Structures
1.
Amino acid sequence: MTNIIALASDHNGVDQKISIKIFLSKSGYRCVDLGPFASDISVDYVDYAKQLGMTVASGDVDAGILICGTGIGMSIAANKINGVRAALVHNKVSAPKSREHNDANVLCLGSWINSLEDNLEIISLWLNQDFGEYRHVKRVEKIDSNKKDKIIFANGIFDLLHSGHISLLKFAKSLGDKLIVGINSDESATKVKNGNEPLNRENDRKAVLEAIGFVDQVIIYDDISPLKLMLALQPNIVVKGGEWTADEIRRRDGIPQEIDIKVFPLLGGYSTKHLIDKATAEKP
């Protein structure tokens, strides 16, 4: 799941935080300890939850772990920060589910509720569970309230539009203010389709997409890959449809780390090839 983990607590969580840091370091993670460092000096949990939440939301670390007496105050305070999805976890069932279903990026633990051994097991379960992005991405993205001024980019040939395309584009628009769609030119689309020309010319495909109310701009590009256009636009989020994970897409397409990737699940039974096959099938 992660490489760099921020840790913070209040005075009730200092002792467990020290042991958790040692455990994570031995497990190969890099830890950033935001304090406090003394269990005999009372501090306000809100201050440390806010500092860790802002660090996670900024992208400077991959995830965060907060510890106080119950974890409740920490989770409430951390979830006030845009971009933070803090999960209060007291058992081994909720730990992986908070990652798989909710894409939690902050784990809140209670030193009064669980022993160190139990919390270490919760941490291991949490860190080793990936987000189930195909099933849950649409729900999780509805949580994000910080969508102002975000540019969203999606791309494809978009030859014969179908419900799968529309659902993907609607989802993409829901993530930000401006949706830019890149489409392959006729020449590059033919290369992508292994020598088969698109049924509709590039300007016709562009005009159809521009007629969709939630599409803000359509750009034709000549390369097979949209990476050059993407780097010029510098979108906040790139939306892809398919069965790959965001990490797999980033490695495959060379998308920079500063651009977020959201994967929209394919709708079964919808594809341009399926439409063409259906339209050209011989009637009995």
2.
Amino acid sequence: MSKKTFSIDPVTLRSMPFWCVGNPLGDPFGGAVLSKIDSLDVAKLLAEAANEGLIECTSFHDDDLVPWDPKRPEDDLDPKSDVYAKLRAIKKVLDAAGIRVNTATCSLHGNALFRKGGLTNPDPKIRALAKRKVERTLRIGALFGAKHYTYWVARDGFEVPVKVDWKHVYTWLADGLNGVYDYIKANKLTSYVGATVEPKPNEPRGHMFLPTSGHAVGFIFAHLKHPEFFGVNPELLQHESMALLNAVHTVGYLTSMKKLFFLHFGSQIKAQFDNDFPPLIGPEGLKETVQMFWALRKVGWKGVVEYDCHMLRTDGDPADPIGCRKAFIRDCSQALATALLLADRLVELDVAQLSDAQADLTATALLCKLDAKSIQAWMSTSIGCRLCRHGV
């Protein structure tokens, strides 16, 4: 079953990943709020959302779908394995709802084996294990027709600079990502149109080896054998905001480099830990979010917007773990629609003859749908303005 595209400029498709819906809402200070649900049940929730017209795509970590046993690195190929059967049961549900898969990503952060990193682990045996896990993820992604493979920096980072092998660490990372390209081509995994790097400044490690979009682009061009195959999927507002960077700047830079392959979307309080708030939720970021979509329209970018967030822990309902997850999906869809409608209000913005301050104030007035006469009426205490304020 095929679904039509969303296609409201600049968004062509909306993707809701398995990890967002399945998140049980634990944090470092407390356990899970929600009971864990099976990946097949997550697939059914996604199918329901697609049938309501709320999403068109999904994405996943390998561990979101099936467990990983390092002693059985090819269980996905064994028709007698539980993993083989489970993957096909999930695929059946997604296919019936017409859900496409945007990206597959390998979880190299959850298992304690990777506590010192995956592709950059100083132990060559662990790096080799991570590579085999990535290859398994690539096969799983191909089964689902994934368009991208995403390398999220996971635990590839450090706390103690003097413990890092700076001479080799970026070579190890390049070897891992070059291996992604080589495996895709060697095994004719034709669904993949590219691969992406998702940078992050810190968390779960104190510092990550690819902390920002600029670092990611530089690494792609300097270290990878096929830079044309690799792009960036920034998580905005979250990851760049953690480093006090601006989402409009990020998308402007990435589109100029032709490296914005798709966008991860949520909200964030600047300079904090990774909040992963749903889009537009929280005390800040409205103007930045709207102007981000305005900028994407201005430069002519079109592509997938993928939610990468979780519901607020306060919104998790242990008595209704399914119902609150459905509400979360609707909240994300509402937030994106709201941001795009607000971006529409900036279409008529003409800043050519305005000072920087007036350009910003004019954009804000358009965003809030305030007319100049009403603003003037509240600016001044003159008799004429007071009369205007009261409609006289």
3.
Amino acid sequence: MFSSISFAPVFNEALLPLQATKDIMTAKEILSKLVSFPVLGGMSNTAIAEWIENYLTQHGVDFHTVPNIDNTKRSIHCRIGPAVDGGVILSGHTDVVPTEGQNWNTDPFVLTEKSDGKLYARGSCDMKGFLACCLAALPKMKVAQIKRPIYFAFSYDEEIGCLAAPELAEHIKQTYKEKPKYAIIGEPTMMQPVVGQKGIVIYKTQVNGSAGHSSRIKEEVSAINEASRLILWLEQKMNDLIEKNHVDDRFTPPHTSIHCGLFEKSGIAPNIISDSASFYWDVRVIPLDKTEDILNEFKTYSKERELACRGKFLEFKITTEEDHPNVPPLDTPEHLSVVPLIRKLSQVDKLNTVAYAAEAGQFSEAGFETVICGPGDIAQAHRANEFVSIDQLNQGYVFMLRLIDHLENAID
């Protein structure tokens, strides 16, 4: 069951956007406001959600919210246009990554325009620029005679595991009597159409061994040694998949990657056998592979090691748990009708893929024909002095105008 609240337009003067009620804000002006909310992944997004909701209210748009359990965060979705099948969802997230420890030349939460034609701020590229384009085009969407609806779907906690998107997508399906057909996720792609993304999941594996004098290494079970065997197994599993031709040349690298990036402190002295060890490993799958299959094979090998070692130490155990939720890959085939749509809207024929995780796979799993396309370069995301160029922001806005025109001329 999903909890939600529906809202009809009611003004809150304290939250009115930067300009007067009847004025139309530009994408840059809206972006300036959106980046001023330092909402990091995991934090409450109430402040930015209230601003967006008030903007929707200002333009006479009813909206729905999907709050988390303790009501400190919420996703927002709304419909513009007729309640008929075949509409387009425009989706993005409201949270950003931290700036702490990064060497910024400007205040990261103040949009700063420089003479190089770029707009600097945290989230300007990833991905509040896309949200700004959506909201800037809203007045035109409202007055246009579109024959298919447009939906906004804005989530929270994308940056810490794409946590809210599955519930948001499901709530959209439950809320509207009609069925949206397409979902465009506005992650930064330089306005290039993307039809594939890798999935990701992160696991934590813990190993408990038997402490003892290092001279007894053959009589005890070293947690460090066993953890090392497990890590080498993971590397070999990745190589086995490649050797079995589990490759997809659309991606870079063209295969599933399995990587151990953090080995937590283990052991207390060089001459004492370690009785505990833990490590984190991530799996980034191409659409051909499934993280569940890799995990199950890893657990099978872990059981084999448990049986092999319990003759020395009966309590030897290996446990593995999910540390980052499993975000599914995206693989939108070219024959789906969303492909000619995104080619038309972007004015780009070449289809691309990305290695980063996004909410696109989750919207696809919910039954929507899904692609990724948005302003900005992913190379600028998550780093100091993040920016989106004014040209890219303008292209994002023109993209919205093309969508309006397309829906005005949609064939019934």
4.
Amino acid sequence: MVDYEQRVDVHALRERRVERARAAMAAAGLDALLVWKDENVRFLSGLRAQIIQGKSALLNGCLLRVDGTMTLFASGGEIDRVRARMPWIEDVRPIPIMEARGLVRGAFETAVLPALGDLGRIGIDELAYAQVEAFAELAPGVRLADGDAVMQRARLVKDAGELELMRGACAIAEAVTETAIDAVRPGVKECEVAGEAMRTLYRLGGEMAHLATPFVASGGNMSPPQRFSSDKLIGEGDIVFIDIGAMWNGYYADIGRAVVCGRPTRRQQEVYTAVYHGLQAAVRAMRAGNTNDDVAAAVRHEGIERGFGDDFLSLFIGHGIGMGANEPPYIGEALAGAETIELRTGMTMAIEPLIWVPGVGVRLEDTIAVGEDGGIPLSRSPFDERLLLD
């Protein structure tokens, strides 16, 4: 915070997020939302908590009632800090890691059920089975409903303040990516490149990477892609792909760039050029009123036109992003049950086409907001012009 200009008022932003969640809750006919996912707890309460790998949705929870009152269920390690530094949280109750059956039951008896009171229909985003059992045994009158879909709707469209925070996350992610690119040279390990990038992430105040496993893959490790960094030595002529991103103020940025170590081959240029134009086609197609299917078709058309229509990675082409690193809606999801979603101004997506053929794999990725006349890139890292044919 500074005294010479107005910046994002994060407290007002948090209040607007809560109002969106309340509206979505009321539309779904819920009396309350009880959320446990890290991103949903952060969205409602502003809690930036210690994250233990593999324990998401087991550490902290937040109960938001339809009247706007809130109870935060926090790990014992967070309670004192919440009381000292988060004055907007008036009701905070300690809970254990919600995993051991006896501790879960105790937490329900002493913290969760007293906070629920006589609430009837409650939206839940995620529960361990011990919590499901506790609801059934200790609160048989409570009706559980899908609260995750409600939170997805509340988080779907970002306002101007959220987009500004995402631009800040992108600026850090761009520096992370540039640091990684600068570290690429023959004889350097993929994990060394990731290590240099992570130093920049933390030096600039990033909270964490977009991925728990920073993705640096070179040469044959991109065909097919090995989606983590290893001790492989980067060789002369390798394409090196970097996907690390950043989180800042609770919002994620997702950026991926491929560069060549040395001089490119014609085949590398052909694949890279197809992916590049696929990404640019996605940007043009990301205008309000189009659908996620329209964006996927635009990307695939560029691959088909350049002879790579059958060579896309068997994964979606893009995903929603915001307080979740990877969230609905999806672009180009080929699995059963994929939904067609109309794009709305302020939605944010990470578009990440990946084409691989034997010996060559390329992905390029940007974080993009839906606009009235086309996508608005929030990330702006440069591309490797040595690999572009047109």
